[in-house]
Design a protein that fits this description.
It is globular, with a radius of gyration of 23 Å. With 374 residues, the protein is of the alpha+beta class. The chain folds into 2 domains: 86 residues, no CATH class; 268 residues, Deoxyribonuclease I, Chain A (4-Layer Sandwich), CATH 3.60.10.10. The chain has 11 helices and 12 strands. 39% of the residues lie in helices and 24% in strands.
């Protein structure tokens, strides 16, 4: 009887390990499948980090029980080596020098969450701290998402010329839907600031012309070199407070819990499909660029997703090149969500990268220094 139990237990763990390995591989390469037909794989891309963690635990388990079976997890990891280094770069240190080299171009991307304008009367120090942080790191190019600002009303809380002076920017490109006012004084959109001359601005918008249907590109010249900067914000999940409560404490005890789970799954599915369309449109515009491209933005999706793969194809991801650890950029829901990215063309050399871990918005700002290859 004990022998039978051991055999059954052993088979159970082997089969479980194989299933986890297969799910991990599907999640790691899920971004290569069109969400229009394979949208359920999007859930595996979100779970990929935890599946990878489970494979590590299986390796430890088999090490003490039957080492040869650890090959199941090891082979799966080797097969997914490339996606893994985009999720967790295989480096232990990634120093960042705050003093920028003269020949480098410093780029910042940050979802600024309105610059905390809704809490400005009670907590004006948050906006001050955000502007101080930007001035401290002195980016040459800064791409902000969820930007609330005004370029025409001097008494507005977020008057753009004042913000530019604080960070020593000379030029900007602000994209928004003019039919949508934030509070009568401010617009809501995406903005690119630059210390170098802007020679071309373009806002691209598609039906239904809402916030996530707009993106922009800006042609900038530095030392005779022209490059095109894309600033994007892909479809957000629009989680309600009830959705977030369910994520924090998922239960299936009542009919209401079942309804909440269905709502959550539906929002995730819609997000996968909308980001597919948005990323394909952005890539189409990128392919038209006569200049090397830089892409900054809030992708609202993970590094092994379809949107990430579509936009990042042929480009270098600054975090994958010079970052370390998990690199979380979204401060809520999960500690593994690196959804903000900076991609650069192959003509650039990525010198350094940093995620600034100060919680002033619901996203952490990310910076990279790059330079043109000789």
């Amino acid at each position: 009887m004990p022998g039978l139990f051991r055999r059954i237990t052993k088979k159970f763990f082997i089969i479980s390990n194989i299933i986890v390995a297969l799910l991990f591989l599907l999640g790691a390469y899920g971004g290569n499948f069109n969400p229009q037909y394979w949208w359920p794989l999007g859930f595996l891309t979100l779970a990929c980090f935890y599946l990878l963690l489970a494979l590590f635990l299986f390796i430890l388990f088999w090490f003490f029980v039957k080492p040869k079976w650890s090959l199941i997890s090891i082979i799966a990891m080797l097969l997914a080596f490339k996606p893994i280094i985009h999720i967790i770069p295989l480096r232990f240190t990634a120093p960042f020098e705050k003093q920028k080299q003269a020949e480098n171009l410093r780029i910042m991307s940050w979802n600024v969450e309105h610059f905390d304008i809704l809490e400005h009367k009670t907590h004006p120090e948050t906006k001050t701290a955000m502007l101080d942080l930007i001035a401290e790191y002195q980016p040459d190019i800064a791409c902000y998402q969820e930007m609330v600002g005004s370029d025409s009303i001097p008494e507005a809380i977020n008057y753009i010329p004042d913000m530019m002076e604080k960070a020593s920017f000379k030029y900007y490109h602000y994209s928004y839907n003019p039919k949508v006012d934030f509070d009568g004084k401010h617009h809501f959109g995406i903005i690119t600031f630059s210390k170098y001359p802007i020679i071309n601005k373009q806002t691209i918008s598609y039906y239904p012309y809402d916030y996530n249907s707009i993106f922009q590109y800006t042609d900038i010249v530095k030392d005779g070199d022209t490059f095109r900067v894309f600033n994007i914000h892909l479809q957000s999940l629009k989680f309600s407070s009830n959705n977030l409560k369910f994520i924090d404490n998922p239960e299936m005890k009542t009919q209401e819990d079942v309804k909440e789970s269905k709502k959550l799954l539906y929002k995730l599915k819609i997000g996968f499909l909308k980001r597919m369309t948005q990323s394909e449109r952005i890539k189409e515009e990128m392919n038209k660029s006569p200049y090397p491209v830089i892409v900054c933005g809030d992708f609202n999706d993970v590094p092994n997703s379809y949107a990430y793969n579509t936009i990042g194809k042929g480009l270098q991801n600054a975090f994958a090149e010079k970052g370390r650890g998990i690199g979380r950029t979204f401060s809520s829901i999960s500690p593994t969500l690196r959804i903000d990215n900076i991609f650069v063309a192959q003509q650039f050399e990525v010198e350094q990268y940093v995620r600034i871990s100060k919680k002033l918005s619901d996203h952490f700002p990310v910076l990279t220094d790059v330079k043109f290859k000789k």
